[in-house]
Amino acid sequence: MSNVNELIRKRLRDHPPAIQRICEEIISFARHLPPKALEARLEELIRKSVKRGEDVKHGEDGK
Amino acid sequence: MILKRLMIEDFRQFKGKHEICFASSTKRSKANITVIYGENGRGKTGVFRALMFCLYGDRRLSQDGEASNNELSLVNLHKLRAEKAGTPVTASVEAEFTHGEERYTIRRSLRAIIQGDVIHEEVPDVTLSSQDANGNTRTISDPDAIRDKVGSILDARVREYFLFDGERIERLTRASAEQRREVAQGIRNLLNIDDLETAIDASRKLCRALDTEIRAKSTGEHAKVIKQINEMEDKQSSVRRRLTELDDEARTALAELHKVDKELEKYQEISELLQGRQALTTRLEEVGEQMTLVLSQMRSRAGRAAVPIVETTIKEVFDLIDNRKQRGELPPEIRQELIAKILSDGRCICGRSITGDPEARSRIREWKERSEDPGVSDAALDLWRYLHTIISRLDDERSGTESLLQRYAELRHEENDIQHRLEQIKEQIGGTERNDAAQLEKHRQKIEADRIRLEAERQNLSVNSAQNAQELETLRLRRSQLESQLSIRDELVRRSRMASQVQQALSGVHDAFRKEVAESISRTATEMFRCLLDAEGQRNLRGIVVRDDYSIQMLDRWNTPFLANISAGQRQIMSISFILALARTAAGGGAFEMPLFMDTPFGRLSYEHRVNLIRQLPEWATQWVLLATDTELSRDEGELLVKEGRLGRFYYLRAQPDGTTSIEDRPLEDALPLLRNRRRIAHEHG
Q1: What pTM did the predictor assign?
Q2: Which residues of chain A are within 8 Å of residue B145 when distances are taken between CB atoms?
Q3: Which of A5, A35, A38 sits opposite B192 (nearest CB)?
């Protein structure tokens, strides 16, 4: 069903790159991880992104 | 999924080993149809059952109804009875298929013994082997893991969309609310929407967990705003849930209403009244739509409509300026600056000195006092022009507003009149001498009352939802402001903010994607449906609408719901169009690799529908397997299949003297003589 994923990816293009990347990654894990593990995975992705300062970059971009 | 091969051994009526190789289009051949042909009772459904058992472990099919397990023994009874009592017999089915780059072989078998007349079947064994493009193989035998794997290729909840009994497929259009939810869940899975929903759920929970942590560390307004946001989100979720429930209830009520109407149609005595009611109900809907349109036109004129109210003032001001204009005071003949210069120089523009002429000086001073400040005079002239335009349009505005009001009043009057007449019809039907008809009418009135109540609740909740969303937006903005003012650059807050952005991004994609998908399926299904439909249907039916919950509705040429009135054959065509449109949408507009495995494909279809299906369907589906009886697949259809170059394999189910069935692979040139002439079939079946 990669074509459907492509449609989802297209719709995410308006968002900042870090948000886009996190969303794509978490959707791809959604089928394979149980809810708690998925939540932990998302938290981890966000924690790393904040550490890299990607959230601040978005703010400066006004996005 | 492309089916390659099915091996059946001692399963149902197939004694011994039998093999079916399926046709699928390749670069060299477009033949993608496999026909499995046999008279009634030869085991076509047995082949279908074998595939469902092999892929999903199904012991029973939906058409089995109340039949006991003993009657539905999967192991070949001849073989079982021929064995010594207590000696087990193994039935097995093996399916080979490809999906993407991988090749799969799934084998499911079960052992049974017979004691007296009672058959005891063991829990089936299952193995799944896969081979990737590099030749690496892997075998699993854990039933749960195999179920998940097969489910990831074709979700069990939508299996009956692709592997189905043609006579029953139309029931997809009649499903109950619970079945609809189940099917919708399968479709969401097929389209990956459920992954999106799972991701949204995880982001929502994470946001809440981070907010709880922040609240524990915050004080004052910041903590209060976070709490309010969380409460509002909960409120909004429950409003959304209730709205979904209401949509479901409303649809169930509408379906029930159509059912009651159908029942009522059986009573000759009230048929005229029913026709009258149908016409009035349709007109009432039209009137309602027209009233909404007139109201929106009135709203768009609201600003201009106020002008006639202040008409007197407008005219007074216009006359005042106009009089001054007539007197030549506006615009002033000579500007103030020039008069001031004449007075200071003491010399007229003609060159005459006015220094010694007090009378001339005094007249020039009066003149100066009369002339306006240039700014004021320009503004007055602008106002004059503007009022002139308004006054010239006043009559048009007045008559436009009046005619709208009049139209609205007429519609209102017609609406009241129709409602009054509908009430009278209700009373007449309710008071009919036929007690059963009167009871039905009472039931109908109750459903109508329920629908009105549901609609009122839905409207209230929609307003609430919009208000909540606005309030939530304000609260989030306030939170953001507070965090900036308090200079909270704490990592926790930043993570929470990012989690919220992720949640909003995913929700936005979800809303847009769901809408896009429903529209795409509706559009494609309508195109396909119209290609398959016969000429009469083309005239009367407009198209298929897929709702948010993936239930389907048919619209007639006046765009009104018509599903309750279409024939079983049309329902079958509609269901097939929906399935193919769903498959195409799942494949992002391209070909979706999934077989259409149809038992009794043409049973309810007219000849024109069959021809259309044979011509069109192989273009849309990658693989088509037909399990057809001698009465539904005649030589005409067979010749057409061959002529179109689509028939790839033909299997004949031959009855054996001992009552079992053998599966014979027949060359295509031998297949056509096996099929019977359509006229002969028609003659035999009266």
Answers
A1: 0.63
A2: none
A3: A5
